[in-house]
Design goal:
With 455 residues, the chain is of the alpha/beta class. Helices cover 38% and strands 19% of the residues. The strands form 4 sheets. The chain has a 7-stranded antiparallel beta sheet.
């Protein structure tokens, strides 16, 4: 299997964890606690203005679990801290993940308080992988959800990922390119991501290219000569309208040689008025095939405004605000123990209560549209529903080949079509209905009573 894109080098999987995972593990080890445990991963509350969440990051989680181990260098470091005993370090040397995972597949929609993933395995194994799982799924859920909002706002107009220079590091840039493609973006400016994930690459020129020539017209002509079949010209280095007239001249020369100017890019200013002016210039020159691309400071809200006002913009390059999920850069994603050694358990902290037991999410549809979800126990059956959590790993090995990125993309497209537009609203969407099953409610009440907590 090609491991060239793994998020962590093979020898560093074990140490990517919080210290308390290891100290708990040694305490479990000394108490001989090796019974199966199930942990549930979920987001308690929606980030601002979100009405749905996009499942993403599962592929990285499965690859990490499949090759989880502590190298000799890891063990030497842990020994140097003088925190851990030799018998525990000997145990870690042979430790591998042998458990199972049930998850909502990548590209599916899920909602607050629904488990996107549940891990079951010996408690040390299942506990120790918490840090990596939250790290990957939290980030990628936020990015994929942000990107899906941009695609929804564009209403069929093309969107491209321009975020690589502003994301929080190289790994985040790669994840954004992948997540945005899952969510419906057409392309990415990130060439490594394009190669790695099979995403179409996109890009034109920077203002520095224009300013390095004696004139804008000469810069445009030089670029067109270099790329006659894929010329896209950046108009706003000096004056956008003058740039449009210069681009018209280049377009006519390209046409004489049997080629076409593909598009022009607006990167600053009032996109609405500028796009209308530029569109008029090209239409009057009989160049109605030249498309207009806008980029620079865009997010779903600005894209939505431009689309609603019917600005003649064909493509949007979305960068910084999407790549860092600017309005919602974090979530309260949690990974909580729900069952140990066959005993349902729960947390009762105020505002952080989580129901006990291994779960299943049952989704109802009415006339092909998602209508409501039932959060129940994994051994329940709810006729007429789709069970969202599926087996993806057993005995430490994936249960099936990883899906193609296009397949994941098509899943999300299908789910978005089946979600009522009310829940896709960009501002203050209503809460999608999620209810607990009677059986889960009874179990929760029973465990609360056993713990001495009033219902």
């Amino acid at each position: 299997m090609d491991r060239s894109h793994d998020p962590l080098p093979l020898g560093e999987t074990g140490l990517f964890t919080d210290l308390y995972e290891l100290t708990m593990a040694q305490a479990f080890f000394r108490q001989k606690m090796f019974a199966p445990a199930t942990f549930s991963l979920f987001i308690r509350n929606y980030p601002p203005n979100r009405g749905y969440l996009v499942s993403a990051g599962l592929e990285d989680v499965l690859e990490y679990l499949e090759r989880f181990q502590f190298s000799q260098a890891d063990l030497s470091y842990l020994r140097s801290t003088e925190i851990f005993t030799e018998d525990f370090l000997d145990y870690l040397e042979g430790l591998r993940f042998t458990g199972s995972v049930r998850a909502i597949p990548e590209g599916r929609l899920y909602f607050a308080n629904e488990p996107v993933l549940e891990v079951t395995g010996p408690i040390i194994e299942a506990q120790m992988v918490e840090t990596f799982i939250i790290n990957q799924v939290n980030l990628q859920t936020l990015l994929a959800t942000k990107a899906a909002r941009c695609v929804w706002a564009a209403q069929g107009r093309g969107v491209s990922d321009f975020s690589a220079r502003r994301t929080q590091g190289t790994d985040a840039a790669m994840k954004m390119a992948r997540c945005s493609y899952i969510s419906g973006f057409q392309s990415t400016s990130n060439v490594l991501a394009a190669r790695r994930y099979g995403i179409p690459p996109a890009g034109t020129m920077a203002h520095s290219f224009i300013s390095s020539f004696p004139s804008e017209a000469e810069a445009f002509q030089a670029y067109a000569e270099a790329f006659p079949r894929r010329t896209i010209l950046l108009l706003d280095t000096y004056d956008t309208i003058e740039g449009a007239w210069n681009a018209v001249q280049v377009a006519k020369k390209l046409a004489e040689s049997g080629n076409r100017l593909l598009a022009v890019r607006l990167d600053s200013g009032d996109f609405d008025s500028l796009s209308r002016h530029v569109r008029r210039i090209f239409d009057e020159a009989n160049l109605d095939y030249v498309r207009i691309l806008a980029s620079g400071g865009l997010d779903e809200h600005e894209v939505d405004r431009l689309v609603r006002d019917d600005a003649p913009i064909d493509l949007f390059g979305v960068g910084t605000k999407a790549g860092v999920s600017a309005d919602a850069p974090w979530s309260d994603m949690a990974y909580k123990l729900v069952c140990y050694d066959g005993r349902p358990v729960m947390k009762l902290s105020p505002g952080k209560v989580n129901p006990p037991g291994t779960k299943q999410v049952f989704r109802f549809q009415d006339d092909g549209m998602f209508s409501r979800d039932i959060l129940g126990l994994s051994d329940e059956s709810v006729p007429g529903t789709e069970e969202m959590l599926v087996d993806v790993m057993t005995g430490g090995s994936p249960t099936a080949a990883k899906p193609d990125l296009v397949e994941i993309r098509e899943r999300l497209e299908s789910d978005m079509q089946r979600l009522d537009p009310r829940f896709k609203a960009l501002n203050r969407p209503p809460l999608y209905p999620v209810q607990s099953s009677p059986k889960l409610q009874r179990l929760t009440a029973t465990v609360q009573e056993q713990l001495g907590e009033p219902e």
